[in-house]
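User: We ran a pulldown and think these components assemble together. Before we commit to crystallization trials, I'd like a predicted model of the whole complex to look at. Sequences follow.
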Amino acid sequence: MSDKLYKILLLAAALIMPIVCGGVVYALVTDAYDAFEHFGFFKFLTSSEWSYTEGAEQYGALPFITGTLMTTLLALLFCIPFSLPVALFVGEYFKGTKVASVLSTVTDLLAGIPSIIYGLWGFYTLRPLIMALDISPQGSGVLTASLVLAIMIVPYAASLSSEFIKMVPNDLKEGAYSLGATRAEVIRRVVFPVAGSGIFSSYVLAIGRALGETMTVTMLIGNTNNIPDSITSTGNSMASIIANQFGEADDLRLSSLIAIGLILFLITAFINMIGKIMIKRARIA
Amino acid sequence: MDKLKIRNRLAKDKALLWAVCLLAALTAVPLFAILGEVFLRGYDQLSWSFFTESTPTAYKAMKAIEAGEPIPGGIANGIVGTLLMLGMAAVVAIPVGILCGAFLAENSKNRFAQTVSYLTDLLQGTPSVIIGIVVYIWVVVPMKGYSAIAGSVALFIMMLPLIIRSTEETLKILPASLKEAGLALGGNRARVMLKVQLPAAFGGIFTGVLLAISRVIGETAPLMFTALGCSFIRFAVDKPISAVPLLIWEFFNDPNLQELIWGASLFLLLFVLTLNLLSKYLAKKWNQ
Amino acid sequence: MEPVTPILEFNKTCVSYTKQTMAVKYVSAAIDRNSITAIMGPSGCGKSTLLRAVNLMHSLYPNIRVDGEILLNGENILSMEPIDVRRRVGMVFQRPAPFPTMSIYDNVLSGYALNGIRLSKTEKDETVERCLKSVALWDEVKDVLNKKGTFLSGGQQQRLCIARALAMKPDILLMDEPTSALDPIATAHIEELMKELQKDVTILIVTHNMGQAMRISSKSMFMYLGELVEYGDTAMMFSNPSDERTKAYLTGKMG
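Assistant: Here's a predicted model for the assembly, 828 residues in total across the polymer chains.
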């Protein structure tokens, strides 16, 4: 094979990315166009109406945007108290030991469990528990979905932040110890400030994961098309309304669902881009 | 006073250590809870016929439940569908992904490559349900129907960025001397890549492919809008087809079939986790 | 002359990384107050290991064992709380490593922040000025105290690290090849500085640079393969070493 042919071959393979990504955007935009044109872009974003009575169809994305933001932020909140200790355990306290590698294998496996199985577990184990504890009568809802979502994003947040915690130079830590600091003080005053931007960016990427998580949320959020008025009430996320109704929808409703997909795509793309840029900066520093 | 203060700080230090250990250990609980539940509820459903027979109809299942018998049938249609779609997706995704990864590794500074690299991140971060929508628009609508082809296109798109990244990263960490030595011996770029670099990177690429497969094998949402599902074993690529995660979703929604959930989940879970552990093990072994 | 307790005394000090091998073997020596003592020897001789033992750095790594006694003002530090000992024993490392997230001002005060000791604003200002003056950095940085310490040159960074250690008013200052990462001019600065500091603090310095030992120290130790081969007056040792191994090292016949 000549060098020229080889270069062309590689270039051709690389061209697939712009084609696929361009195709994704093109397909979403053209098929969402109907909904935006019919309701108006901002009206669609801010309307909380979702009714498919023929002739008086009204579709708005607000309940699902709210549902997505609520589940994501709650999941983040529940995730931090576990992912941060895991990151410290693996990246600082037991760095390079057997127990650390066992724990990171465990979190890797958690990351590998398919989301539909998380959904099942949430439905059959966590939901009855929530009902038994009298937290909410129907068991499913924003809270239930967020709890399972939190477990799902712990591995992502933990493994990335432990990477940054590991990179804190030993020189700095020894410097702090030599001044009489305890390990807790070194972690608070040296490790966290130095690894901070990296840790933060790993949570941004974890948010990116949680935003688009579909099956778990669909199985646990309760699937009602209203704006959740509390964390225990039911609702729908952008991904779950799509999963629920895409198969049966046509015309304007289909276009509305695709419009929600486009919004979801843009939000996750934006969050992921910010996360990636921050990670790159943190790695260079 | 000073002594007291020191004792206080040491107590705080110890408290943090214990809190970290406790919370880290708690994180492992869901894994074992999930494994335990799926295993305990699913292991007695696994039998030979579970893997060789197709899903029963809701009517048959209802009859069996009424008669107090175990539900007949299994998930063979799902296994066949999963393997077929995965196979079709992998056959395209592996070569294309490797070539694209090689492109990125060889041209890391050129602007086009940086764009491609950015788009790879973009695609990797795109929620799978959106891939489902897009493939529905691309393939299902023009073909006027759900099909195995549509499902495998969705899997292909999800596998692609994973394979590209692992290829690129593995090639980039190969010592530059390897490539230089190859070129110095008179090989052209293509031959050096084919005979020197790719073989040296084989381990990393292989584990990347395994990981990519384990990531997409459990995907449900994108298949719902593309492959749809089918209650019998089928090899036609232009017709709707089933997959193991689709079956789990079906069982979840059909009260008559609910008993089958756990066997199917156990199978999927074991498959995915084995692939995961295997890739981790191989990565470690080949790194040495 | 009446006998005084030496500020620091090694008594059969041993350090081992594994069960079989000892990095430091039965070192016994007493260090004079307000002096500069140099520890020399070929690389791998255990000189850094011995120095780090004084700051109980080894207790950070679970598999390292320190045996024997190390007496600070007559008290065995091996049975004391590390965080207590380290406050009284300052340490300066090979590579200057000011805390990158802290300003120059905060870097000087980092020991207090790390130990959770609160100071008033005037105490802080006073400490920062005193310490930066004593490392001859004050004039260079007094207008940029709120900038990050990492913007300084290598030599300035190292002086900042010395100031950071001095801020805790240590009894003794350990320096682990503090100039090996610096250029000759910065090295000369630091050496000059050490001679000044000697009035207030006892300095124990590890160096692989014989010239440096000769220029600054009053007493020197020569270590070889973990053993303390010779300990005495620097001038004496350089002119008339009593041990063959010392002689070989000083005349450049040994690594």
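Residues 2-42 of chain B form the longest helix (41 residues). That may be worth checking against your pulldown data before setting up trials.

User: Thanks, that helps.
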